[in-house]
Amino acid sequence: MTEMEGIMTGGSGGANLYAAVTHAQEHNLGKGDRMVVILCDCIRHYLDNFYDDNWMVEKGLYPWSTLHDESNSLSGMQISELNLREIPIFTLENTVGDVLEEMSDGVQILPVMRDGEIIDGVL
Question: Which domains does the chain have, with CATH numbers?
């Protein structure tokens, strides 16, 4: 429903809409008829599963081809061709000034490491 109609609801809302469409078909409802359908939930509880194509592929609900789009101009490129900027890594010894300087240069993801291996967080 979200992809085709822009209706951002969860499974309960989808079930309600399905029942409403079935009812409309069984009772020959048409353009001049009105029906109220209550969509009782939102997608926030489903963002990390049903609305995540990777999750859907992992669970076998979508085909693998869902994650690969040949028409995307980046599809055939190697990561080394993207000319990505190196992300600075901070430690607990860095100052807020160090962070602000990197952010003023356009860096948006700033990982904080401890002992060179464990990420303490992301600024």
Answer: 1-70 (3.40.50.1100), 84-123 (no CATH)
